[in-house]
Amino acid sequence: MTKNEMVEQNPTGAEDRKGQHSQEKTAVAPLAPQITLDDFSRIDLRVCRVMKCEALKRSRNLLRLELDDGLCGRVIVSGIHPWYEPEELIGKKIVVIANLEPAKFSNVTSQGMLLAGDTSDGECKVLFVDEAIPVGFRIH
Fold first, then answer.
1. What is the set of domains in the chain, with CATH numbers?
2. Which of 45, 93, 94, 130 has the fewest CB atoms in 10 Å of its CB?
3. Surface-to-core class of residue 32, CB atoms within 10 Å of its CB (0-12 exposed, 13-18 middle, 19+ buried)
4. What does the pLDDT look like over 92-106, one tens digit per residue?
5. What pTM, to 2 d.p., does this model score?
């Protein structure tokens, strides 16, 4: 049986799914300016587990996350509260830019930034990590 015959007999074949995916495609943001391999090597992406999370009282959008980074722990602040409640994040593994210069938000110093992306309908989705990947693991 040829590949074309298999696709005709199997409406859920890869070619059919490929066409279906292209219909489901959403708008994709343009690429950021190119960086060098050296630029990328300076970014320290680490797997962290959210140990504690709370809303900041002075802000509708900000969450304060206490993380186990496999080293000494860290606190980050993220503007994801419109999409996530604190209890949804506790125990989850996330990816953090660990060597980002600290920044202050509502009198809390953030020691990194979690990775998340925006969907075409304006939602924010945090990048969660598989449980098999250990805390402190460096992404490269």
1. 44-139 (2.40.50.140)
2. 130
3. exposed
4. 999 999 999 999 999
5. 0.79
